[in-house]
Write a structure and sequence with these properties.
Length: 420
């Protein structure tokens, strides 16, 4: 009997843990404040790694229809580095990565040399890494409920606030479940219905890395996600709510010269540095001992062997258009490859698709912006614009307050697309 009881307790513990990992996490049960009830809705969808030209190139009919009914941009210019974590967080904060602090997918906090890595759940869920104020934090603070079926930063206690409901990131979650949940949220009564919802799809990015942007695998992934976007938009319209759908990507995908990888460690003696490597493109070098390491000599040595394949700068001397300075997390030296070149390691070949590059050097890392709904005009094509400008548009649609002085974006680039 005792054994049975122990087994039962153990099993229910496992079930509880499993449920916790899989189920929605509720952080706030307060209803929407009365003054928010009539405010509009925004569903923000990210298709990771969806290059600016994929919809046309691969015949994504539903996304093309959204462009026809609403607005779209020639391309969405990612912030540098054009990688996943910095850019998702830029889109929801309106700040460049060096302003919000998520400076790369992997980096160190120089005081204490603590490392942030996208694969490390403790770090990803710890608000101390995240600066700026994401849309959902503003919303929650202003009495408006928000919900997330994945978004970088949504799992962390940024300023002690998370969306009212959110899911822990799990790549294997079927797209069907994600779309169904977004629609379910919008069917809640007005008091609990979230006004800001995020969704995220990753397969276009992962297929792009593994097979390159010109592959049949990417085409399939694009058409699969297009199918779900079509279903989502069809059902959103049927809700009868003033809901706006904004489709973005964090970056595009560059075909690389992965058969000619650059071996950074062979270019200079880097034993005096900790190196945070991301995407095969960005390397942040942190001197272990600033008194004994001669940073200028390392820079000269690295530059002498660059052969036009990579750039080397002190953070304070980075090209101004990258807005990648003024943050200690950048370390002492920034080394980034120039498309189509990527860094590798002996015994490991980089993948045929990569991103992270300077978006003003490689247009193939540009992403997408499509938007449709009552707050967007119909049939407007915007010039390429930087993704820091999306935040002010979302805030305006949701009628939320924020301090424009505290962000890098502004409302001008998107104003021709928004209904007066
Ligand atoms: P990248 O290495 O820049 O291509 O990053 C893309 C990967 O980021 C995706 O394949 C996801 O596995 C991962 N990712 C996206 N969102 C999250 C998240 N919220 N938590 C952890 N990993 C994520
Ligand atoms: Zn990405
Ligand atoms: Zn990627």
């Amino acid at each position: 009997m005792k054994k049975v009881l122990v087994l039962f307790v153990a099993l229910s513990g496992i079930t509880f843990l499993w449920a916790q990992k899989k189920d929605v996490i509720i952080t706030n049960v307060r209803p929407n404040a009365p003054e928010t009830l009539d405010k509009p809705y925004v569903v923000l969808v990210s298709i990771d790694g969806f290059r600016f030209d994929y919809a046309e190139k691969y015949g994504a009919k539903n996304i093309a229809e959204i462009a026809r009914q609403g607005v779209y941009a020639e391309s969405l210019i990612p912030s540098f580095p054009s990688s996943t974590f910095p850019n998702h967080y830029t889109i929801v904060t309106g700040m460049y990565p060096s302003s919000h602090g998520l400076v790369s997918n992997t980096f160190y906090e120089p005081v204490g040399m603590e490392k942030y890595r996208i694969g490390d759940r403790d770090g990803v869920e710890d608000g101390k890494w995240y600066g700026g104020t994401p849309v959902w934090v503003h919303a929650e603070r202003q009495g408006m409920r928000s919900a997330s079926y994945f978004w970088v930063g949504s799992e962390a206690d940024v300023d002690s606030v998370r969306p009212s409901q959110y899911y822990r990131y799990k790549a294997s979650t079927p797209y069907k479940d994600r779309v169904a949940q977004a629609l379910k949220w919008l069917k809640e009564p007005p008091e609990t219905r979230p006004h800001f919802i995020t969704l995220y799809f990753e397969s276009v990015d992962s297929k792009g890395h593994a097979n390159g942007p010109e592959s049949v695998e990417v085409k399939k992934a694009v058409l699969e996600v297009d199918k779900w976007i079509g279903k989502l938009w069809e059902k959103l319209q049927k809700t009868g709510l003033p809901v706006n759908l904004i489709l973005v990507s964090d970056h595009g995908m560059q075909l690389t010269k992965n058969d000619q990888p650059i071996f950074l460690d062979g270019m200079a003696d880097l034993s005096g540095y900790e190196i945070a490597r991301s995407s095969g493109v960005i390397n942040l070098l942190y001197a272990k001992n600033k008194d004994s390491v001669k940073i200028e000599e390392t820079i000269a040595e690295l530059r002498a062997k660059a052969e036009g394949k990579y750039e080397v700068f002190r953070p304070s001397e980075m090209p101004a258009h990258l807005h990648y300075s003024d943050n200690d997390r950048l370390g002492d030296i920034v080394v980034y490859s120039l498309a189509p070149y990527v860094f590798g390691n002996p015994g490991w070949r980089p993948s045929p698709g990569a991103h992270g590059f300077d978006p003003y050097q490689a247009k193939d890392v540009h992403g997408i912006f499509y938007a449709v709904g009552p707050h967007f005009k119909s049939g407007v094509k915007l010039f390429s614009f930087e993704n820091i400008h999306i935040f002010p548009a979302i805030m305006e649609i949701l009628q939320l307050q924020y301090d424009p002085e505290r962000i890098d974006g502004d409302s001008a680039p998107l104003s021709p697309a928004i209904q007066p």
